[in-house]
């Protein structure tokens, strides 16, 4: 039995792909790691970072700002600022992230892409999305079931729902950074 396990281990070790995740979610308690991933710039030119929070039994993506212990999420049609159970997206290869233009009607065309799942809500797939309106970038959650419902963000404390937006994807073959909005 031991020799069979050893043979299996050797076969897997020599023939398996050398794969490791090049991004992770780290605990966030008010200090951003050096490799935190930015999703763009706000109206004042400050970086917006991509986060997620465990709230009401769900994992919800949102936005984090430097020198602010909170994460800002859309919840029940309003903006909610939370200070506990927060993680921030990190990578030493942030240039391998790509923002793909899509819409709720064409979301299914991205089936061959590695989309970043940013959260968990029962019966839904939750991805990270963003939109630029004027000079403002807004980050939020893309909610999909059998159909994609759209990008949910907040502005001035209330819900904004968009049907055309960008969704965050990972491209291991990407060699150059995308332009940050």
Automatic annotation (TrEMBL):
Residues 1-16 form the signal peptide. This is Uncharacterized protein. The keyword Signal applies. It comes from Photinus pyralis. Keywords: Signal. The keyword Signal applies.
């Amino acid at each position: 039995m031991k020799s069979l396990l050893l043979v299996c281990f050797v076969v897997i070790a020599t023939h398996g792909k050398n794969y490791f995740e090049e991004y992770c979610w780290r605990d966030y308690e008010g200090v951003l790691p050096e490799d935190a991933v930015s999703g763009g710039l706000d109206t004042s030119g400050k970086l917006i970072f991509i986060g997620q929070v465990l709230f009401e039994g769900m994992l919800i993506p949102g936005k984090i700002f430097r020198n602010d212990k909170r994460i800002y999420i859309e919840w029940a049609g309003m903006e909610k600022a939370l200070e506990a159970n927060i993680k921030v997206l990190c990578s030493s290869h942030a240039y391998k992230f790509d923002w793909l233009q899509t819409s709720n009607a064409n979301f299914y065309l991205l089936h061959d892409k590695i989309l970043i799942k940013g959260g968990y809500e029962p019966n839904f797939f939750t991805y990270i999305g963003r939109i630029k309106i004027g000079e403002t970038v807004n980050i939020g959650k893309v909610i999909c079931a059998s159909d994609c419902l759209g990008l949910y963000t907040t502005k001035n404390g209330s819900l904004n729902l968009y049907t055309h937006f960008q969704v965050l994807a990972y491209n291991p073959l990407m060699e150059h950074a995308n332009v940050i909005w």
